[in-house]
Amino acid sequence: xxxxxxxxxxxxxxxxxxxxxxxxxxxIAPKGLNEGIIRLISQKxxxxxxxxxxxxxxxxxxxxxxxxxxxxxxxxxxxxQDISYYAAPKKKKEIGSLDEVDPELxxxxxxxxxxxEEQKRLTGVAVDAVFDSVSVKTTFRGTLEKHGIIFCxxxxxxxxxxxxxxxxxxxxxxxxxxxxxxLNSAVFTDGSFCYIPPGVRCPVELSTYFRINTAGTGQxxxxxxxxxxxxxxxxxxxxxxxxxxxxxxxxxxxEIVALKDAVVKYSTVQNxxxxxxxxxxxxxxxxxxxxxxxxxxxxISWTQVETGSAITWKxxxxxxxxxYSVGEFYSVAVTNNHQQADTGSKMTHIGKNTKSTIISKxxxxxxxxxxxxxxxxxxxxxxxxxxFSQCDSLLLGxxxxxxxxxxxxxxxxxxxxxxxxxxxxxxDDQLFYCLQRGIDTEKAIGLIVxxxxxxxxxxxxxEFAVEAQKLLSISLEGSVG
Amino acid sequence: MLKIKNLHxxxxxxxILRGLNLEVNPGEVHAVMGxxxxxxxxxxxxxxxxEGYEITEGEITYKGKDLFELSTEERALEGIFLGFQYPxxxxxxxxxxxxxxALNEHRKYxxxxxxxxxxxxxxxxxxxxxxxxxxxxxxxxxxxGFSGGEKKRNEIFQMAILxxxxxxxxxxxSGLDIDALKVVANGVNKLRSKDNSTIIITHYxxxxxxxxxxxxxxxxxxxxxxxxxxxxxxxLEQKGYEWLKAEAV
Lengths: 481, 249
Fold this sequence. Notes:
The complex is a heterodimer of chains A (481) and B (249). Chain A has one domain (2-475). In chain A, 23% of the residues lie in helices and 35% in strands. Chain A has helices spanning 4-10, 35-44, 49-63, 103-111, 120-123, 141-146, 154-160, 162-168, 179-187, 428-436, 441-452, 454-457, 462-475, and strands spanning 26-28, 87-89, 125-131, 134-138, 150-153, 190-196, 205-211, 221-227, 232-240, 247-250, 253-258, 263-270, 282-293, 299-306, 311-314, 317-320, 326-335, 340-349, 355-364, 369-378, 386-395, 401-410, 416-425. In chain A, the strands form 3 sheets. In chain A, strands 5, 6, 8, 10, 11, 13, 15, 16, 18, 20 and 22 form an 11-stranded mixed beta sheet that branches. Chain B is α/β, with parallel strands linked by helices and 249 residues long. Helices cover 39% and strands 28% of the residues of chain B. The model of chain B has no long low-confidence stretch (mean pLDDT 91).
């Protein structure tokens, strides 16, 4: 944690620094959602028949569903016909090498601090970048291939590994799982796919970077990670968007399958544009993330740092099917100004001796609302299962809200479920102590908040942790006057 | 260094300090003594800029500047250090990180570059030995899980790192056993120089056996009612404060 100081030093302004827009020629579908559009997407992507069927089935289901309203959120009406469901940087031909990638695009990713030019080799991170709807470039593929690891865009996987896609897509989050997942299943345009063969420990961190660029488009990406028996992978996801006055919709699906003895660590630093100080604009982040611990002794761990988005609706979950499987959820969710977040986790214990941990740290400032919502479900046959949940809320100021909605459903008597919750404020004593040591208010808050979130931050891969700490400080700037 | 003239301070309409005068010159150690509730801690908090105190009259100049023109953190950066009576815990923030942040703020204020990690660790190590604080403590979160004595030692440790011009030690001796007291006193003595000043707030004489003050003041009912040399502390120890109450009226 020796870097914390540098990071805090670097943070001098609280503006959303990823708010630029790249002027790039885009191939964009007309607004609206109907069967024709779905067929167009499938055709543009040259998809096999089973994909189109999957999409159409999801669309049929979606039409019968209603947008959920049980969350502690106030969501303005969304006109789903006023969104374009496909936008891609125009390309003249198939991209073979990096030289052929549009320089404007490379520049964008450079601004975001992601070098596609294999600079990541130094840090050992393989990156798949998704720009609007299309995966632009995956780095590091050669190294990964040596280990038999498949890491590519979802579209490529559909073309090159249709059997894996057919077998696992929708197996954890079915096409009609919920309103937003159904929408995603119908119209998703790209995303990342990852397969780790049996017994392989992925030698680098895998990373996907999502960027919404074009106005009036939604981003619907889909990620599928399959960890075969005894394998290990650590996967990171980052996201940003330009500053725009209108709201943009992001409805993603992430599915993880962990077979026997496999371990998957999934980390997210979510920094979509949160809207301005008055609540204008910002991304609606409605995401379904779920992992299935299919085999015994498998483990899925979710870590998320949520600082962006106008509205967040997201519950990374684990289905603990295999005996002795383990599910973990570590979350820091920050809301400032007019942001709203309803986020948490679901742990469904089915196998025997399964274990889950939920650590949630909510931080609310401004006039924002921050809710934790979690379900721990222990089925009858999940004997000797254990859950520990800890939900802490930190309030900055007196106009924000923190809420906790824990649901516990236990169907056997041999299991143990623990839930702890606290609500606290940054005390005047703590602030004065920092000020008296020469640390100004903004920095003091950054320091205290990072300390408060440490338990979660330490779960992040190193280079992500640095970014997350920076973000926490930036997100809260100006929140205490 | 510090000049306090006719200082009147109220909290929520209640007057705590009622015309306090005090002058501290470079190199001097002053002890401010007095029974509980006479305004000793208030004096420390007003000098360091804690919110919630209303200054109704009087002035304080520090290094020739009007102290009230400076914000709380500016006073710290100008070299005023408070050793807290009740050091606060900051969970999850390591001592190392906290002190490095603080030190770098001080350096920035003086137009210096941030200290390198290696230099900082060396400095920590040097000062740690000075106050005999265990290296385990410097890896822990700020004051979290520290015993009373460890917290007080930690205050002196921070003082050693920041090297203030004016240190105010508020009841640093309370809660210390005799060994810890010696360690703390030893730390303070080693940090004494002709350029910096110390104000020791205490109600017992025993700390003053180890840190010899140049001046001793008795604060009573919001005013300094008696000042003298180090022998005044001994007199107080023998006679208590009662005889001064009579003088004050």
